[in-house]
Amino acid sequence: MSVTPESLKDQGLAALQEGDLKKATDLLSKAVLIDHNDAQAKVLLGMAYSQSGLHPQAVRALLTSVEIDPKNPDSRYNLGAVLETAGDRVGAMHAFKDAVQLNKDHAAAKARFQALAQSFGPQVNQLINGERPASAGPPPFAPPPQASIPGSKTQDEEGGGKVQCEACHKQTPIAMICEHCLAPLPPPPAPKPVAPHAIRAANPAKSKIKLPPHRANTILALGIGGFFFPPLAIAAISMGGIDMVIMERNEMDNSGYKTTETGRKLGFVSLGLWALAIVVVFIVPAILGMYKTK
Fold this sequence. Notes:
Oligomer: single chain
Helix content: 55-70%
Number of strands: 2
Strand content: under 5%
Order of helices and strands: HHHHHHHHEEHHHH
Shape: elongated
Low-confidence stretches: 131-144, 148-160, 194-209
């Protein structure tokens, strides 16, 4: 059976659901390398990184998919969850805000946006307009939400999204204050995650992380040059192997993965031909000469 991005995603999702984060990361990395435009595979990979505690890698994986499907509110919510977990509360607030703008009934995103917005106090208007203060301080609320695997239910699906105010005894959306009597409410619980899809950055100008460029063309040139000078073949094999590992970890621009792989293979071929030439030109005549002397 041939390996396809869909089969790798299914296996990676199963591993993610079982808590085998290393296996999930390996499978989903391969799915992304096969199809660079598979936004869901990139989101799932980011989730695996996030749950492994590899927050910079998680954010990078998620941001690489931001331009593929820009209009999904659940995607924005999961982006906010990962950004908040990674410590970027301002970026998370923008992501939750955009989710609410796309779906005004998204209770989970609305709750997290209100919680973050009120945690910044008077600075919130500047932050919403794109200004970041020197120090925003830690949030006085519940732990940030975690993006999770598809199939989980939102608070609305489980009948949540609202709490009872202890002052007026009315149901009110989860926030810091009651929408009816403005009495303080208990800290909002971390919302349950929603099924992820492709993600678009809430504030690309502030949150986009540029990956190191690949060296695919250089490695390809070294692989070709190896046919004329053996050390170039060795360099192609060595550099190609290192870069392919880094690309598989999503820590380098992986658009040049196939070219890098081709350059590395050419290095092996050229080095093999040099070895064969040495055998034919030097070793075989030496052996034949030994037999003649006998």
